[in-house]
Amino acid sequence: MKKTFTALDLTYCAACAALMAVCSWISIEVGPVPFTLQTFAVFLTLLLLGGKRGTMSILVYILLGAIGVPVFAGFSGSLSALLGTTGGYIIGFLAAGLIYWLVTALLGEKLVVQAAAMVLGNLVCYAIGTVWFVEVYSATNGAVGFAMVLSWCVVPYIVPDAVKLVLALALGKRLRKILWKR
């Protein structure tokens, strides 16, 4: 198992971080959490790069946003954007990457394992983002219940996220063969 990143690995990580940024800019404001293609990009990144490189790419994306590069939805980027009500969902992408990395390292990279790892990662992303949203929203706007936040921030996104996952699986399988052909 190689322990270092090659120049090609770093290039792919940077390209996928850029893909996440572009997909976050494709956004429809539908409530407190915008509908974006960001989740699709996270899924595709993990499929293309694998758990280790994919998670590093997600981390690069988050760090770029944290230092002020406008990579988040609505062309935003700053530590305050990351610490806002929807920042937990962005942090949840990193948890999803770590889960994908762990599950595929333990169980292999069969399509069903990859799909299960992404579903599990997305559920953890929802959990982190929802708890974060409740805490930040309650601190600034008054108490709000989990059921209300789930109805705002999770329920409307379940079907679109499932579609994004299926599309990422279909596209990722084809692109990975091309990307890693040497």
Describe this protein with a few key phrases.
single chain, 182 residues, mainly alpha, two-stranded antiparallel ribbon
Short description:
This protein has 182 residues and is mainly α.
Give a written overview of the molecule:
This protein is mainly α. Helices cover 75% and strands 2% of the residues. It has helices at residues 7-25, 38-66, 79-82, 87-107, 111-141, 146-153, 155-179; strands spanning 27-28, 35-36. A two-stranded antiparallel ribbon has the order 1-2. Helix 2 packs across helix 4 (87-107), helix 5 (111-141) crosses helix 6 (146-153) and helix 5 (111-141) crosses helix 7 (155-179). The radius of gyration is 16 Å and the shape is globular.
Mean pLDDT comes to 94
**What helical percentage do the residues reach?**
over 70%
- Uncertain residue segments: none
Note the quaternary state here. single chain
Large-scale geometry: globular
> Which percent range describes the beta-strand content?
under 5%
Rg over C-alpha atoms, rounded to the nearest angstrom = 16 Å
- SSE string, helices as H and strands as E: HEEHHHHHH
Number of strands: 2
| Overall SS class | mainly alpha
Q: How do the strands of the widest beta sheet line up side by side? A: 1-2
